Structures
1.
Amino acid sequence: MSIKNAKERMLEFTAFSFRDPRKAAEMFAEDGAFEMPYLATFGVPSEYKGRDAIAGFSNSCAISFRASNSRISRC
């Protein structure tokens, strides 16, 4: 088994975030934190501490994304 670099871990986390928020959260230590400072500009908390909070954030993003009925296209 090889050790994954930061890019590989982020891609894996992103993929799991939408499909399985709990599995994505399990990539963090029990007391781990996920921070995205720019989210505050949208009125969304920018820090989530602990696996439950991280899973909740991932789940809410997945629900919002599916509910938005957005079309994504290449530029």
2.
Amino acid sequence: MNNNTEKQQYLTIREAAEYCRVSDSWLRNQVYKGRVKFTRTNGGSGKLLFIKEWLDEILLQGVQNG
């Protein structure tokens, strides 16, 4: 990770869903489909964690011109 990522505040699945204005289940589905970056606590077996930059990437994918 770069220094900017290390200084970011991590969001839980619920916080991340609120930030994106989507349901927890929708965001979890995007994780399992490999469409959004995330990390996990406990060496990869714990809670899903996100930073806003990663969430912004998936939100921008839905932007359409027109």
3.
Amino acid sequence: MRAIIRTSIVALAVTCCASACAQEQRAGCVIKGNISSSGERIYHVPGQRYYDKTLINGLQGERWFCTEQEAIAAGWRKAKV
């Protein structure tokens, strides 16, 4: 019985962590603000090479933007590819 309860608690914790790690996308905001491994703040727009592979982790300071102007004003640069 303890094993079942412990397994359930671990499964619940993993699920909660996974949902909390990704910042919630605001309606209509499709620009992804990603922080590179070197700390550079880069934004990706739909259609760019790595847009679909880029994941947003709010716990690392990554975020969604509604416009490119918003991303630039926040100090992010556009992805080169």
